[in-house]
Amino acid sequence: MLGKRFGVLCAGLGLIAGLAVPSVAHADNRRLNDGVVANVYTIQKRAGCDGTYGTPNAGIKINPKLRLAAQWHTDDVLNNRALDGDIGSDGSTVADRARAAGYAGVVEETVAINPALAISGVEILQQWMGRPDYMAIMSDCGNIDIGVWSENLVPDRSVVVAVYGKGDSAAPVPAPPRQFGQRPPNQPNF
């Protein structure tokens, strides 16, 4: 009987200790991130961007380099509560992060911070559309590339960063060479 009570007590203390330490909620935010891209596309369409690929008003497409730059800043803002905008804890700008991710082009950024475990697309748009500078970034037809990343910190912080680009003049990131039909070295054979 005493052993059972001790086990329950240890389990209870472990639960309390786990709740006392903030941690990043590793939820799959892909749907939210893709929703941000869709909303920016809609804002661009309303601003007169025609969405025809290859034209000056081509509309926006996801760029993995910009997504990586957005991820870096999201993680930085999430874990450094003194940050509330575009400058990173190391003094980096959005251009610095995009260049480090391999994007060679003009970039801009929008950041949403919510003091809660989660954030919705509506809350993101309310924050961004309420700022004339962010609205100008989102509706700029010249922004043809985008990368979005979001994270949640248990229990009280959610961050979403979108990095916009006007065209990447850098070469694509090359994959390691391999013979046709060979698996990359980091993929197991099944």
What this model shows, in words?
With 190 residues, this protein is of the alpha+beta class. It has a single domain, classed as Pathogenesis-related Protein p14a (3-Layer(aba) Sandwich), CATH 3.40.33. The chain is 40% helix and 17% strand. It contains six helices and five strands; from the N terminus they run αβαβααβααββ. Strands 1, 2, 3, 4 and 5 form a five-stranded mixed beta sheet that branches. A hairpin with a 2-residue loop joins strand 4 and strand 5. Helix 3 crosses helix 4.
CATH top level label: Alpha Beta
Q: Could you say what the CATH architecture is?
A: 3-Layer(aba) Sandwich
**Sheet of most strands:** 5 strands, mixed
Rounded to the nearest angstrom, the distance between the terminal CA atoms is 49 Å
What is the H/E order? HEHEHHEHHEE
Reported by name, the CATH topology is Pathogenesis-related Protein p14a
User: What is the overall number of helices?
Assistant: 6
How much is the average pLDDT?
A: 80
**Class by helix and strand content?**
alpha+beta
CATH superfamily: CAP
Provide the β-strand percentage band.
15-25%
**Number of structural units classed as domains:** 1
Radius of gyration: 21 Å
Low-confidence stretches: 6-23
Helix content: 40-55%
- The best one-word shape is globular
DSSP E strands, number: 5
